[in-house]
UniProtKB/TrEMBL annotation:
Annotated ranges, domain SF4 helicase: 433-701
Domain Toprim positions: 283-382
Biological source species: Lactuca virosa
InterPro entries in UniProt: DNA_helicase_DnaB-like_C, P-loop_NTPase, TOPRIM_DnaG/twinkle, TOPRIM_dom, Twinkle-like
The name this protein goes by in its record: SF4 helicase domain-containing protein
GO molecular function: 5'-3' DNA helicase activity; ATP binding; single-stranded DNA binding
Amino acid sequence: MLLRHRTSLRGLFVSNSPCPIMTSKHFLNFKPTTSSFNYPDTKTNLYPAHKFISSTFPSKSSPKLVPLSLKPSNLSFSSHASIPRPVSEAYLEKADDEIIIDTPQLKALEVKLKEIGIVSESFGPGQKNGLICPMCKGGDSGEKKLSLFISDDGNSAVWTCFRAKCGWKGSTRAFADVKSSYKRMNALPKVKKIKELSEHELNLEPLCKDLLEYFSERMISEETLRRNHVMQRRYEKQIVIAFTYRRKKELVSCKYRDISKKFWQESDTEKILYGLDDIEGASDIIIVEGEMDKLAMEEAGFRNCVSVPDGAPPKASSKDLPSQEQDVKYQYLWNCKEYLEKASRIILATDADQPGQALAEELARRLGRERCWRVTWPSKNEKEQFKDANEVLMFMGPAVLRGVIENAELYPIKGLFNFRDYFGEIDAYYHQTLGNELGISTGWKALDDLYNVVPGELTLVTGVPNSGKSEWIDALLCNLNENVGWKFALCSMENKVREHARKLLEKHVKKPFFDVRYGKSVERMNLEDLELGKKWLSDTFHLIRCENDCLPSIEWVLRLAKAAVLRHGVNGLVIDPYNELDHQRPPNQTETEYVSQMLTSIKRFAQHHSCHVWFVAHPRQLQQWNGKPPNLYDISGSAHFINKCDTGIVIHRNRDPEAGPMDRVQICVRKVRNKVSGTIGDAYLKYNRVTGEYLDIMETMNRN
């Protein structure tokens, strides 16, 4: 059940005039009343009417804030307070060297920057903060998050938009293309000197009554605020929240938040995690995306929590991890390394939006996915979910927030899974029938107990020349299409297209293609049979062929087979034969290593696309062959052919009239990895030379 949001805070002001106050979302107007700042050691202080809160970031490069209209007195004001500007991810000091201005390269650079929309009152060397990004326009609120750095010689510039939903960055030189990039410019200069801070120097004060009520509105208690040293800072016309960053109880940095939810930090300070002392020596820690979320976690009973000091990136980087020196944005992790490396379990409770998930990925990459866990925020309704810890605390309460953390799941690692990830697939597999995915019948009763076709497996087919390997596979494909509607991709290098079409049509129509000797007295297929057969060919088979003189590589074949799977929905792939492929390999790679790598690629393709692959490989030249079926180890090239395949089949045709009928074909199943697909043994089929069909011997006897 959602907890109702409490009524809005009273106005934070110091006179009888109404004024806007700090809330989670909006400026609010209230009736005149009298309030005061509450400090433990001071009496109530009343301030003149001009001493109320306002928010702006005045600078030479920023326009003045539009005066706010106050009702009912219709007063207006604009702030000219001298307030620290927001500081970007890297803080720079101006060089003491002589600054070069009004040079030809600087003029050219200024023109180039203006062309792409970067506008500043000054284009001199150094750092420019608080500019409007021409890509995102600062979003709906017009945030000035673009930072521009111009080199001292005025010849180059680099810029970055630090808005979480933008992240646009680039670099250029005065006389180079804007899209050029230079590694030296990508690494912003480091802080030259870290300044020391104190509460007295920063004029920090305890929170006034109205700010305490503001935090109470967000379910944060005064005790939690006091323990985390949350304070306030007063400027001429503004009061802001001050989140103090401490290490060993010493003040290291300070981050401010004003009434419009804008954040900035003290410049030239060391970046560390907020609440760092709370995770000292902890084996389990929680990392959140904002200071308010850190405070919310404490309200739910978790003090072992820290917040990142900066915002989230728009998306996770696909590049390799940078070195410590180059990892500027996440320098706070390196600065807190001694605290983080002791943790054995790190729960990433970043925001539910895309930048929040990108931040979780960046943290996991640096901290080690093997010790990271992630949370799933509860749903608000059917379409939305809560964004962060503080939102869950406000609307669902501390017990629900506690449950979110306690039910955190292992952070996914690419390539490492648990059977739990496959429970849905296992359930579907259990309910499948034997005649479908568990092994599809070949259509020959003699083979039912020995060989069934399983999607995603590799069948190796071999046999001495002219044994009918390709013919048998073609007959098998026709049976599978007729029985279960399978489609196929054919990479058959030894067959001309028209000859292969003839063989397939004869098996499908069950009539000879020509009226010649092998057709005997059987009626030839007519034009109607041919037209229907051509449509069947077009619907059932897709050809992978090299139309020039070069041989296809296995990578090329599998790439086109993938396209056939995705575009045409094929269920099976035939590669016939192995020795017609291009087998170029590095000089330092043996044939055995090459064959192993090739078969691994084929198996991965089969498994990934649930596509059965038949691979034909010829045996090596057999010395003193005795006419018996060859062995799988006789295949030319490597023993990996039998080691890697799921099923190994030898096709053997009788050539001795004294040994039996000449039309009898022996199907020798010599290897079966998956017992679902069959078992080792021999089966015999009869080859119909007129139509190219393979028939069960018992079936032919019944026909006769």
